[in-house]
Design goal:
Elements: H1 2-23, E1 40-47, E2 53-61, E3 64-71, H2 83-94, H3 106-125
Antiparallel strand pairs: 1-2, 2-3
Length: 127
């Protein structure tokens, strides 16, 4: 009887140790960046209001959007140039150009999105 209890105890200890080892395994990595580990800086352009070009400069660092500079000087003052200050922080936070457009500046907003996509495309093409 003592041998049976000792055997069961040994099995329980081994089982508990096995669970401990499994629970210490590293968790699977979170979602990876859609840009891999790409790094670089590139410009992108897209037509804004009345076809006037919006130019952006995008920097990716290890697959993360770290900076977006927007030249929206060709857009309607106090309307179109309101989009960048709202959209750029959201793009950096989301690590994606796919953010909501600004209601009063939808054409310029879409131009910023398209220009950022073009710049990211250039960075990825150069990897």
């Amino acid at each position: 009887m003592k041998k049976a209890v000792a055997s069961m105890f040994s099995i329980l200890v081994l089982f508990a140790l096995g669970l401990g080892i499994v629970s210490c395994a590293t968790a699977p990595a979170g979602p990876s960046s859609p840009y891999g580990h790409a790094s670089g800086t590139a410009q992108g352009q897209a037509p804004g209001i009345f076809g006037a070009v919006v130019t952006v400069t995008v920097t990716l660092t290890d697959g993360k959007i770290t900076e977006i500079l927007v030249d929206d000087s060709t857009q309607t003052p106090s309307i179109g140039n309101q989009a960048a200050p709202i959209m750029v922080p959201k793009m950096v936070e989301a690590n994606s150009p796919e953010v909501d457009t600004v209601a009063s500046a939808t054409v310029t907003s879409q131009a910023i999105i398209d220009a950022v996509k073009a710049a990211i495309g250039q960075i990825l093409a150069n990897q």
